[in-house]
Design a protein that fits this description.
about 220 residues; alpha+beta; Alpha-Beta Plaits; 4-stranded antiparallel β-sheet; two-stranded antiparallel sheet; 4 helices; 6 strands; transmembrane; transmembrane helix; membrane
Length: about 220
């Protein structure tokens, strides 16, 4: 689909008035100049909604905070997803609570020791106890973004080998090309199952008819 324009219809609604508006966008997918970043980290921002991180200025500010803990400058935002799409709960309409946003950032440079220590087994154990994970660097996201460090995910994505496309044939079966089933099914005797399926309902229906006839004919008043 790279290089092909796609038409996408976006439907949005107002949180307060519930009014809706739709817009059709034409998107052309263009591969990144340097390819997909092999080192990717996903951060959970607890004090933001997804629409607050879509503007370019907000994403640039987030990249500045990411550069401080990643210790790299070649960072780019790959994906922005609402926490509600990951099983999160709708926040209560009090105290200005937010839905939460997952922001995936990629780089061509390895992870910093700070990020690796935040996802270490020791840090995961501290998170299971309700404590903050180990981090050897200063949180450069504060005070604009509140990062849930226990939900940090680091991954390495390497380019996969290109698989050849589908090769379409002529549509005509070649000579001596009869279909051969992978396995042979042994013959089965289905007579017993057929008789049980047919006779049992007939016997039950006959008994019900006899019972109903006895009640209606032999249990009448005066008989």
């Amino acid at each position: 689909l790279q290089g092909c324009p796609m038409s996408l219809q976006v439907l949005a609604y107002n949180r307060r008035t519930y009014s809706t508006v739709s817009q059709r966008l034409v998107i052309t997918v263009i591969p990144a100049p340097g390819g997909e970043p092999p080192y990717q980290g996903e951060f959970l921002v607890g004090n933001r909604n997804v629409e607050e991180l879509l503007p370019e200025a907000a994403r640039e500010m987030f990249l500045q905070g990411s550069a401080g803990v990643w210790e790299r400058r070649d960072l780019q935002v790959i994906n922005v997803t609402s926490a509600l799409d990951r099983g999160g709960r709708v926040p209560l309409p009090i105290e200005g609570r937010k839905e939460g946003v997952y922001v995936k950032v990629g780089s061509h440079s390895p992870f910093s020791p700070c990020l690796e220590s935040a996802v270490s087994p020791q840090s995961r154990f501290r998170c299971s106890l309700g404590q903050q994970p180990l981090a050897s660097c200063y949180d450069t996201f504060a005070p604009h973004f509140s990062i849930r460090w226990c939900n940090l995910t680091l991954m390495q994505v390497w380019p996969s080998s290109m698989t050849p496309g589908l090769i379409w044939g002529s549509g005509v079966l070649e000579e001596d090309g009869d279909f051969q089933p992978p396995t042979e099914v042994p013959p089965q005797d289905l007579l017993l199952g057929f008789l049980v399926t047919l006779l049992v309902p007939l016997v039950v229906a006959a008994l019900l008819c006899l019972l109903l006839g006895h009640l209606m004919c032999c249990r009448r008043e005066g008989v």
